[in-house]
Amino acid sequence: MAILKIARMGHPVLSRVAEPVADPTAPEIRALVADMIETMIDANGAGLAAPQVYVPKRVVIFQAPPERAPEGIDEAEAFDHTVALTVLINPEIEVLADGMETGWEGCLSVPGLRGLVPRYTELVYRGQGLDGETIERRARGFHARVVQHECDHLDGILYPQRMSDLADLIFESEVRARMAAEAERQKEKADA
Ligand code: NI
Fold first, then answer.
1. How does pLDDT run across 147-157, given as a tens digit for each residue?
2. Which end of the chain is more exposed for a tag (fewer CB within 10 A), N or C?
3. Is the pTM of this model over 0.85?
């Protein structure tokens, strides 16, 4: 296993459409995924797509840990918000609800920045795992967000291209100040 170099915004590998994987069970795909997992954990990311490590193939990995689920939802609902580390090859997304929600995103290929990105809130994704088995899951919230973000990488799209207002593209170090200002505004609204 090895920690791989991560391509940064501007490299052509990030803006091309990745190729489907003919055989998800091939040893080179298994080796690629092992390196991607090590790279993602080392970089403390929630997901990683193969083009981010200069491999233009339709492979993504991601996770949505329980602490990302909203507070106060019941167990059945929380299930859709949470997912253990998943390997998805040749993924497809089917959107289930028209509604979109904005949320902060970052990307290992766009280091140091965060952006407010609208994403669909509810979807089903399908793809194959490393044993060639079919994976089909329903996803909501952060789980749905991370899947959309990673699958976009396979079509050459980075999150800033999904943003509706680039005034919401900010440095990581300013997120705290930005959120404090937002909370203050909400409070003023409530007090008025
Ligand atoms: Ni990304």
1. 999 999 999 99
2. C
3. yes
